[in-house]
Amino acid sequence: MTTTIPAAAPPLAIIAGGGVLPAEVASEVVASGRRVVLIGIHGEAEPAALEPLGRIADSVRLEWLEWGQIGRLLALLAHEGAREVVLAGSISRRPDFRAIVGDFGTLKRLPRIIAAMVGGDDSVLTRVIGLFEREGVTIVGLGDVAPRLLMGEGPQGRCRPDSSAQEAIGAAAAVVTALGTLDVGQAAVALGRRVVAIEGAEGTDAMLERVAALRAIGRIGRGDYTGVLVKGIKSGQDLRVDLPTIGPQTVIRAHEAGLAGIAAETGRVVVVQRAATLAEADRRGLFLSGFARAAGARA
Amino acid sequence: MTTTIPAAAPPLAIIAGGGVLPAEVASEVVASGRRVVLIGIHGEAEPAALEPLGRIADSVRLEWLEWGQIGRLLALLAHEGAREVVLAGSISRRPDFRAIVGDFGTLKRLPRIIAAMVGGDDSVLTRVIGLFEREGVTIVGLGDVAPRLLMGEGPQGRCRPDSSAQEAIGAAAAVVTALGTLDVGQAAVALGRRVVAIEGAEGTDAMLERVAALRAIGRIGRGDYTGVLVKGIKSGQDLRVDLPTIGPQTVIRAHEAGLAGIAAETGRVVVVQRAATLAEADRRGLFLSGFARAAGARA
């Protein structure tokens, strides 16, 4: 990094869960000329991914917190002058109640936290965002601070979807759109016009393994139809939390399932390890393409 | 069977694919006092299931045909005076072209058959039905000739869905309804309000195995939420072909997936081996319940 960062500019805080995404976000933000307070959640974030960034001492301050230490988190943000927070990476555990009890700042806010958790019709995440905002902290989206990590428009690598792939994309995208309001089915696989798999709790990788297995036993066409994976987001999803992700593994699994490529909603799906993902797609002859949801679709 | 059947009444023809359903339909129809021409498709229908019925010589005439012998089929129907046909059982192969070439009646109609196959926007099955109807043969539905084989209204066995199960049924039924027009997703599993699996080409049994596996690894709640399987039909599906089916295996797999029961659309889902299915459900403490799709739903 040769960028000179004015020390006085307010830093961006990144609350880091698992995977490589938090480190990628931090790199992008630092490269854009902004300081970062990188907050790893113990047991979720990967030290091996975050610690190298912590060594860029003038641009990145790395801290570790327990799940639920909201008081310590808010104190840290105030101390660092960070008013914007981005959430990145996967969270697999629930908050540790002992950490909450040991954190005076959290305990003090507990009535408000509980009210946020139990009240209203919004999702828990939307209410947690409201809780932060009442403390003067704004949650921003990946697209606001690291737009290059999101899927671009059209083909991203060397391969392009042909007309039969476009037909399959349309079929799978129709399913993703139909399920958009129902908090399920953010990904689907179509072979030609036939949708053969819809993602539930198993995740995209497991769904692609299922397609590979169904093809191997001849339950669905082996190579007769062009197959595609489509990933999108829920209708009205808050773009600041929990965006769907693709990466090199997605490309490898899609290839093993005999698919011709992957289409994902432009600006709404994260491409982790972008260079490696594109290299894998080019090497295996898969397209990787961004699409905008059709106007009039329930998006 | 003690029913006396007037020999002069026109018989019902049953074109039999795989599984136990064709034999069940034949028994029901004979019990209702109507003769049956039972036509097994070689390589699909199970001789062990059909041959015992063939021995009730005054009520059932059993014949075997190759896939694609439409000429021989129409000649047989004419000879037996059968003007109504019901399709029952699964078909896993495609017509054997050699059988078509060897059947003069089929060859003669080939231009019309090809026109039916390639023309129009309807499904192939709808067009095949039209082809039969132009020959003076009517395709009827299971509900017309053996309504007792279809799911009834409300709880069928000893167990009933409680309010948390009703909530899960609502969540999974919303997914089945949303996908209704898209020719996919006729079954879904919900744990509480969360839909965790949607059926694609893998079939209901494989989807239930997936749910069991996801529960075993703790990816979805182990027993915290009431789980249900919901099965429905496509919007506007022709009720004369390819109705979804549940049976004893479905109950066993649903139980192994930790579900509390199965809800299926009343009058639109077949319950094969009804007595065994209900006994299995009662023994394992699962409910088996018929529901009408909500008015206003896209059905």
How would you characterize this protein structure?
The structure is a homodimer of 299-residue chains. Chain A is an alpha/beta fold. Chain A has two domains: 12-145, Rossmann fold; 150-291, Cytidine Deaminase, domain 2 (3-Layer(aba) Sandwich), CATH 3.40.140. In chain A, 38% of the residues lie in helices and 19% in strands. Chain A has eleven helices and 13 strands. Chain A has helices at 21-31, 47-54, 70-80, 97-101, 104-118, 124-134, 142-145, 163-178, 204-216, 248-256, 274-284; strands spanning 12-16, 36-41, 60-65, 84-88, 138-140, 154-155, 187-191, 194-198, 227-231, 245-246, 261-265, 270-271, 287-291. In chain A, the strands form three sheets. Chain A has a six-stranded mixed sheet with strand order 6-13-11-9-7-8. Chain A has a five-stranded parallel sheet with strand order 3-2-1-4-5, with helices on both faces. In chain A, a hairpin with a 2-residue loop joins strand 7 and strand 8 (194-198). The longest helix of chain A is centred in the middle third of the chain and has 16 residues, at 163-178. The radius of gyration of chain A is 21 Å and the shape is elongated. Residues 295-299 of chain A have low confidence and may be disordered. The interface between A and B is medium-sized, with 26 and 26 residues.
Please mark out the parts of chain A with pLDDT under 50 across 5 or more consecutive residues, or reply none.
295-299
Largest sheet of chain A: 6 strands, mixed
Strand order of the largest sheet of chain A: 6-13-11-9-7-8
Alpha-carbon Rg of chain A, integer: 21 Å
Q: Order of helices and strands of chain A, N to C?
A: EHEHEHEHHHEHEHEEHEEHEEHE
Please identify, by name, the CATH architecture of the largest domain in chain A: 3-Layer(aba) Sandwich
Counting DSSP E segments of at least 2 residues, the number of strands of chain A comes to 13
Q: Report the oligomer.
A: homodimer
